[in-house]
C-alpha cells in the first residue's frame, strides 16, 4: 500500500510538471515527464495522447503517427482521429488524411477545418468551397478572418486553374492576404490591370501591418512581400514587359526566400522568358525547380508546366535522349495532352526526321480524335516547310470542324492559288458556302419566311465571286453575284459587278440590268473641288490666284508657251586659283599623261641603303669632288623646260608650267592609259 501511494504521488508530480510545461510551451520537457508516466502506466490513454501532442508540437509527425499506430487498441479513431489525420496531412499523405477524417464518428470543428485544407490540397475546389462556407456560417471565434482568407484562396484557385467565373463573396479586403487572393482571381479572368492595382494595395497593407511590430526588420518585410512581387512580375510578363518582369524575378531570387514553391515558380517563369536564348542561365534556374518538397507546394498544372519546360530546355540544349525521356514520361502521365507529342515531333524535326515526325502526329490524331484538329494543323505546317503544299491542303481539308471557318478558307484558297490550282480553290469556296446554307436550313426548319444570310456567309459569297472574276470565271461568278444582289438590291457595287460579268456573256441581260443603276443626278456627290485639291493629303495643290494687273495678266497667259530658263550654277574654282596666271591647258589630263610628268621621286635614304661597300657614299660623291665641280660647265636648262620670266611678273607654280614636250620614255605609258580620263588642276 505504501509503494502504491508513493507511485501515485510520483505520477501526480509528473502530471503537474506536464501541465506546467504545456502552459509554458516547453513541449520537449513535457515529453520527458510523459515518458516517465508511461513507464509507470504504459497504457495510460491520457499519457499517450499527451505524448502524441508533444511530438506534434515538436514537429516529429512521423514519430507521433508511429505511436498512434502502435497503440491502436488504446488510441481508437474516436479519441485520436484529429491528431492522426493532422500527422498524415503534414507528412503529405493527403489521401490517407481524407480517409481518416471521413472514418471519424464525430465531425468536430477541428476536423472540419482540417477537412477543408485536405480538399484544397486535393484540388477539389467545389467541395472545399462548400466546407468553408459551412464553417463560416456555423462558427464564431477569433479565427473567422483566417477562414475568410482560405475561402478567397479557393475562389482564386477556381478562377486560375478551372477558369470558373468567381462569384462575389462580399468579403471586405481589410488584410493583404485577402487583397492578394482577389488579385489572383482577377488574373485568372485576364483582368491584369485591375489585378496589378490589387497587388499594389496588398503591398501597402502588408507594409503597414508588419511595420507596427517593432521586432520585424526590413528584411522580414521584403521576405513577406516576395510572393506579392512575384505575382506582379508574372502580370508584367503576361503584358509583354519581359525586361521589367525579369528584373523583379531576379530581385526576389537574391532575397533567397525560404518558400521553395515560390522559387520554383519564379525559376520556371525566367526559363520561359529565356526560351532558346541564355541557355546557361536556364540550366542554373532549373535546379531550383528540383528542390525537395516542391511537389507538395504547387498545383498539378504548375508541376506539369515545369516538366514541359524541362523537356523543352533539354531540346534547346541538344540533349535529345533527355528530351525524349521527359516527353515520354509526360505522355504516359497525360496521354491526351498535346504538348508531349508536339515536343517529340519538334525534336524529330531538329534531327531532320520530318517524315517520322508527321507519322508520330498522325498516330496521335488517330488515337485521340478530340485533339486531332490542333495536331493536323501542326502536320500541315511541317508539310509546308517541306514544300508539299498540296499535301498540306489535303490535311487541312480533313479537319471537318474548321472547313467552313473564314480563316481556313482563306488559307486554303491562298495555298491553292500559289499552286495555280484554281479549281480546287473554287471547290473550297463552294463547300464552305454549302455548309452555311445547310446550317441556315437547320436553324430555320419549318419556317417559310425569307431569312437573310449571315454576314460571314455573305462575305464568303462575295470573296468567291471576286476570286472567280479575277481568274476569268465569269459564268461561275454570275450566280454568286445574283445571290448577293438578291440579298441587298440597293448594293450598287454588286450590281455593277453583275453587269460587267453579263456584258461578256449575255449583253442583252447586261442592258436590262443596267436600268436598275441609279441616275447620274442621284449619284452626284457634293464635293468642293477646290477644297479637295488644297487639302493636306492632295498630291497636287492649286496655287491661290491673286489680283493680276494688265501686264502681269498677259505674262500669265503667255507663260504656258514660254519655258522657264534654268539658271546655270557657277563652277567652283580651286583654292589656289590665281586669275593673273593662265591655267594649264593639260589640267584635264591624268598626271601620268601630261608632258611634264617625271615620275615619282625616290627617297634619298632608301636609295643609299645596301649599296656599295661599307663606309662608301654614292649619291653625294660627285658633289663633294672639288676638281669635278671647278671644271664642269655651267648647267643649262633642260630641253622642254619653261623659259625664265622677268622679275616683275608672278612666278608660275610648277603644276601650272607648260612643258614643251614629254620625254620619249613615257610614250608607252601614254598608249596604255584610257582615253577620256579626268585630271585635276
Overview of the structural elements:
Helix content is 63%, strand content 0%. The chain is an all-alpha fold. The protein starts with a helix and ends in a 9-residue tail after the last helix. It has 34 helices and no strands. The model is unreliable at 446-450, 618-658 and 660-681 (pLDDT under 50). Among the domains are: 1-106, Tetratricopeptide repeat domain (Serine Threonine Protein Phosphatase 5, Tetratricopeptide repeat), CATH 1.25.40; 434-516, Serine Threonine Protein Phosphatase 5, Tetratricopeptide repeat, CATH 1.25.40.
Which terms would index this structure?
disordered C terminus; Serine Threonine Protein Phosphatase 5, Tetratricopeptide repeat; mainly alpha; 681 residues; 34 helices
Name of the top-level CATH class of one domain: Mainly Alpha
* Topology-level CATH name of one domain: Serine Threonine Protein Phosphatase 5, Tetratricopeptide repeat
The CATH fourth-level homologous superfamily of one domain: Tetratricopeptide repeat domain
Which percent range describes the beta-strand content?
Answer: under 5%
Question: Which structural class do the helices and strands define?
Answer: mainly alpha
**Unreliable runs:** 446-450, 618-658, 660-681
Radius of gyration: 48 Å
Q: What fraction, in percent, of the residue positions are helical?
A: 55-70%
| Average pLDDT metric | 79
The count of strands amounts to 0
CATH architecture of one domain: Alpha Horseshoe
How large is the count of helical segments?
A: 34
Amino acid at each position: 500500500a505504501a509503494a502504491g501511494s508513493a507511485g501515485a504521488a510520483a505520477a501526480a508530480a509528473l502530471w503537474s510538471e506536464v501541465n506546467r510545461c504545456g502552459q509554458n510551451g516547453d513541449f520537449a520537457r513535457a515529453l520527458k515527464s510523459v515518458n516517465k508516466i508511461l513507464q509507470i502506466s504504459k497504457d495510460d490513454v491520457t499519457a499517450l495522447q499527451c505524448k502524441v501532442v508533444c511530438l506534434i508540437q515538436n514537429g516529429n509527425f512521423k514519430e507521433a503517427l508511429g505511436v498512434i499506430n502502435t497503440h491502436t487498441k488504446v488510441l481508437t479513431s474516436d479519441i485520436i482521429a484529429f491528431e492522426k489525420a493532422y500527422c498524415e496531412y503534414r507528412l503529405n499523405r493527403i489521401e490517407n488524411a481524407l480517409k481518416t477524417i471521413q472514418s471519424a464518428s464525430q465531425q468536430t470543428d477541428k476536423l472540419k477545418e482540417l477537412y477543408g485544407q485536405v480538399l484544397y490540397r486535393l484540388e477539389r475546389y467545389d467541395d472545399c468551397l462548400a466546407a468553408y462556407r459551412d464553417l463560416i456560417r456555423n462558427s464564431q471565434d477569433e479565427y473567422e478572418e483566417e477562414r475568410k482568407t482560405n475561402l478567397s484562396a479557393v475562389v482564386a484557385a477556381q478562377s486560375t486553374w478551372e477558369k470558373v467565373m468567381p462569384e462575389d463573396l462580399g468579403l471586405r479586403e481589410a488584410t493583404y492576404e485577402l487583397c492578394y487572393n482577389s488579385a489572383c482571381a482577377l488574373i485568372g479572368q485576364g483582368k491584369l490591370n485591375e489585378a496589378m492595382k490589387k497587388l499594389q494595395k496588398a503591398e501597402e497593407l502588408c507594409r503597414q501591418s508588419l511595420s507596427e511590430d517593432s521586432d520585424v526588420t526590413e528584411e522580414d518585410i521584403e521576405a513577406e512581400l516576395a510572393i506579392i512581387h512575384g505575382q506582379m512580375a508574372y502580370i508584367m510578363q503576361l503584358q509583354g514587359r519581359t525586361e521589367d518582369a525579369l528584373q523583379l524575378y531576379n530581385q526576389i531570387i537574391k532575397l533567397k526566400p525560404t518558400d521553395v514553391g515560390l522559387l520554383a515558380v519564379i525559376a520556371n517563369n525566367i526559363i520561359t522568358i529565356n526560351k532558346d536564348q541564355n541557355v546557361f542561365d536556364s540550366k542554373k534556374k532549373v535546379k531550383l525547380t528540383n528542390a525537395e518538397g516542391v511537389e507538395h507546394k504547387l498545383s498539378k498544372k504548375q508541376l506539369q508546366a515545369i516538366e514541359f519546360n524541362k523537356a523543352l530546355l533539354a531540346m534547346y540544349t541538344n540533349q535529345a535522349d533527355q528530351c525524349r525521356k521527359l516527353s515520354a514520361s509526360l505522355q504516359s502521365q497525360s496521354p491526351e495532352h498535346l504538348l508531349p507529342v508536339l515536343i517529340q515531333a519538334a525534336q524529330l524535326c531538329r534531327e531532320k526526321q520530318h517524315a517520322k515526325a508527321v507519322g508520330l502526329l498522325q498516330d496521335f490524331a488517330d488515337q485521340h480524335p478530340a485533339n486531332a484538329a490542333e495536331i493536323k494543323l501542326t502536320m500541315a505546317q511541317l508539310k509546308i516547310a517541306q514544300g508539299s503544299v498540296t499535301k498540306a491542303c489535303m490535311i487541312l481539308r480533313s479537319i471537318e470542324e474548321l472547313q467552313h471557318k473564314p480563316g481556313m478558307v482563306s488559307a486554303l484558297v491562298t495555298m491553292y492559288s500559289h499552286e495555280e490550282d484554281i479549281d480546287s480553290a473554287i471547290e473550297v469556296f463552294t463547300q464552305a458556302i454549302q455548309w452555311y446554307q445547310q446550317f441556315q436550313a437547320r436553324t430555320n426548319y419549318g419556317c417559310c419566311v425569307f431569312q437573310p444570310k449571315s454576314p460571314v456567309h455573305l462575305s464568303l459569297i462575295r470573296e468567291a465571286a471576286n476570286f472567280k472574276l479575277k481568274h476569268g470565271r465569269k459564268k461561275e461568278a454570275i450566280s454568286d453575284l445574283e445571290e448577293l444582289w438578291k440579298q441587298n438590291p440597293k448594293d450598287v457595287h454588286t450590281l455593277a459587278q453583275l453587269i460587267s460579268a453579263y456584258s461578256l456573256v449575255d449583253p442583252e441581260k447586261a442592258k436590262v440590268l443596267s436600268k436598275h443603276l441609279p441616275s447620274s443626278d442621284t449619284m452626284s456627290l457634293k464635293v468642293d473641288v477646290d477644297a479637295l485639291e488644297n487639302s493636306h493629303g492632295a498630291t497636287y495643290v492649286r496655287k491661290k490666284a491673286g489680283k493680276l494687273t494688265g501686264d502681269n495678266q498677259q505674262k500669265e497667259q503667255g507663260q504656258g508657251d514660254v519655258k522657264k530658263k534654268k539658271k546655270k550654277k557657277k563652277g567652283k574654282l580651286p583654292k589656289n586659283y590665281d586669275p593673273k596666271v593662265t591655267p594649264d591647258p593639260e589640267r584635264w589630263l591624268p598626271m601620268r599623261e601630261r608632258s611634264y610628268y617625271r615620275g615619282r621621286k625616290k627617297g634619298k635614304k632608301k636609295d643609299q641603303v645596301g649599296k656599295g661597300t661599307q663606309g662608301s657614299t654614292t649619291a653625294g660623291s660627285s658633289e663633294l669632288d672639288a676638281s669635278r665641280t671647278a671644271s664642269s660647265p655651267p648647267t643649262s636648262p633642260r630641253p622642254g623646260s619653261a623659259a625664265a620670266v622677268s622679275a616683275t611678273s608672278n612666278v608660275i607654280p610648277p603644276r601650272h608650267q607648260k612643258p614643251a614636250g614629254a620625254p620619249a620614255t613615257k610614250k608607252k605609258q601614254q598608249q596604255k592609259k584610257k582615253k577620256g580620263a579626268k585630271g585635276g588642276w
